[in-house]
Amino acid sequence: MEKRMKIKPSTLLIFLAAAIFVIVIPNTNEGYSMMIVNLGLIYAIATYGVSVMLGMGGQLSFATVSFMGVGAYITANLCSGRNGINMNTALALVIALLASALLAFGAGLILFRLKGTYFTFATIGLVQVSWSFYLSYKPLFGGPDGISNISTLNLFGFSPKNYNDWFYILAAFVLVIAFLVERVRRSQLGRSLAAIRDNEIAAQTLGINVYMTKVVAFTIAGVLAAVAGSLYAMHSQFVSSDMFTYERATTYIIMAMLGGVNNTAGIFVGSVLVTMLPEWLRFMQQYLQLIYGIGVILLMVFMPMGLAGLASGFAKSLKRKLYSKKKVTAGKEGPKQ
Amino acid sequence: MNINTIVSLSVNGIAMGMIYALMAMGLILLIRAIGVMNFAQGDLLMFGAFVTCALTVDLKLPLWIMIPLALISFAVIGVIFMFTVYWPLKDATYPTATVISTMGAAMALKEIATLIWGSLPRSMPPLMKNPKTGKAAVLNLFGIKLQWQFVLTIIVGAVLIWLVFVLFEKLYAGRMMQAAAQDKYAAELLGIPTILTTAATYIIVVIMVSTGGYMIAPIFMVSNTLGSLQLRAFAGVVIGGLGNIKGAIIGSLIIGLVESFSTIQFSQYKDAVVFIVLIAMLLVRPQGLFGEKVADKA
Amino acid sequence: MLKITDLHAYYGPIEALKGINVHVEAGKITCLIGSNGAGKTTLLNAISGTIKRTGSIIVEGKGEIIDKHSRFIARRGIIHVPEGRHIFPGLTVRENLETGTVNWHGFFGRQPYDKELKEVYKLFPRLEERKNQLGWSLSGGEQQMLAIGRAMMARPAVLMLDEPSMGLAPLVVQELFEKIVEINKQQGIPILLVEQNARLALEISHYAYIIDGGSVKLEGSSSELKNDPRVIEAYLGKFAKKN
Description:
By secondary structure, chain A is mainly alpha-helical. Chain A is 73% helix and 1% strand. Chain A has 14 helices and 2 strands, in the order ααααααβααααβαααα.
């Protein structure tokens, strides 16, 4: 029995688009606009966490920002000379990763004692608690002024000198993470999550440990958020609590929904778009939030599966048109036109 | 800590708890009737506060004109909200889509309020003023000084909640609304106009929430950040227990009290305290104070 | 009483009923039998207006209802007791029964419904015993009685029952069907009975239609069809051929 690797035309298209993106963007942007693109990439990493929890598992969680804070503040505290420590940032990233995994696992164990809506409300509670501490507890989080002077990434001696350098680093991170997330989607874990998303009770009867599966997914989401937070701290070299509010949490959810909450390529597109939109629409800044808000409603009404859903729908109708044409020209019995 | 402080903080806490309870009850009514968690609940409160502020401060309308006008506005807002946010997603296969739509509505509401009334917070005069000093009236209860606005909030909130209970339990129309919320299909087959009952539910919820906004406007200042109060209502719903209205009301009052008393020690961390209590509650009793019931009256 | 002509019904793009002709005669029990997926529930849904349909459904004395919304169909006395009972779980038995009165009582009406309530309690004494109990706490059989009682409160011109025997123990079903016969005999209400339990359905009904694949395959008086070999075959499902 041979196992052929089926390469779909859509996958090729995505790789092509990604390649074009990586080549074109750094050559057409620098400075401020490059920074914005970079932020989009960083947010994409956090949004992949949303994708795992919401897209695969069907659980709406706001906790993304809490764990971004974990990653950001660990990095900030270890790499800014605060408390006399100025550690290598790559090492700090690893520490953040491990710490967030532990915290997310613990939080997940508590939060998933609730189901559905009530779980969501509880994650909001978590966000409020973490934000409150991030805002007020000066010793660890610098209070409203935040923490500054955070060193930039130092990977085996290589440090990005400007935002363009950062772009390549972040693009690499996003690529690796996207690949890993896609692997998860197709793995046993991903399938279990899909079962839970579609019918939790049925999943239970199939022998899936619903509780632990959700906790594992939550942990993954938390780790991804922490990585994003850590990179953010290194990239912006400044961290403050406004990044970790309830309102910011809603942004990540919207990024996920825009791109296609369960589509790996879509998540990336959604994140970058939502980040860039305020810049492109700068001229109508007054109405920005209004358009944004109405846009979200329209998005849910007409494209709940996001841009990815739109794209696949388009691809399907395209295929149908091509396919039916083939049948007629081959002279076989085809559908009546 | 003397008796003065305790009573004063308690009144404060129960007053805020009433506001949260109005939101919490509205949340549950909407979840029952439409299956939708409304993340725009707080912003509806905010909008209601702005509307009443405009009627009271800008148009300088006396109370007896302002109230009916306000109620009509709230009804209109409720219907518009239903048709823009809920109606298009009525048959949605993806329930989270509706939730996120309400998030979009929250943003839109905030911005509409800012566009109409500007981004600066506005102040609203309290309902009762001391004729001598012109400042907010103070009730002197056995030597303890209480802000009348807080006391009125408790009274108005309690009356409103009681009225809604009466509507749902004592009135024929209210029972039909309950039926429509519990099983839309069966209700339609019996001739119950479910569109009307849903609209009525929205109107009631907006009235409750907006009244809350009106009552606390003099205390908080009317600004577009009032929406964040909904997070307390969410906590109240969870503590009260899974969709139980009476539980949500009690849960909200508890949250109000916790918040109020936490200002003694942890003023800065008020938010954290409230939600730590919530999470602690979940550890101890995940089904909330009043546990799991299939459905209860009103 | 109810004349259905060339009825087509659709679930989205799928045509579930392909030109049905059914006549529900006044004062009689008409039954609809067929295997799963044959279109029985679809027919009731089409009549009560909850799915897309074309054709003609005329109610004697009230006119055409094919284009009417389900609320107005209920108001014309066509009461559909759905499959699975669908009683209101959070209302008491008495309140459930009360909801049946909407179509003639009106939302803000003040007319009393004690007479109708008393009649339903006489028909189903068990409901009176449990009148303050919440709907979800009733047994399956009691819920079915409640659903039918609720429909009776609506002063139905035609009562449509969708698989009342589903999920109930044989003794309970027996009792239930006796009540159905009683309703028809004593109050002369025409009943359209959709059933999986073909034997029972043929036993209590006057006229029967056998549906398969969205169209009527056979019809006739129940006493004839009971002894028809083709119908006997249909119990075993041989009638449901794949084309």
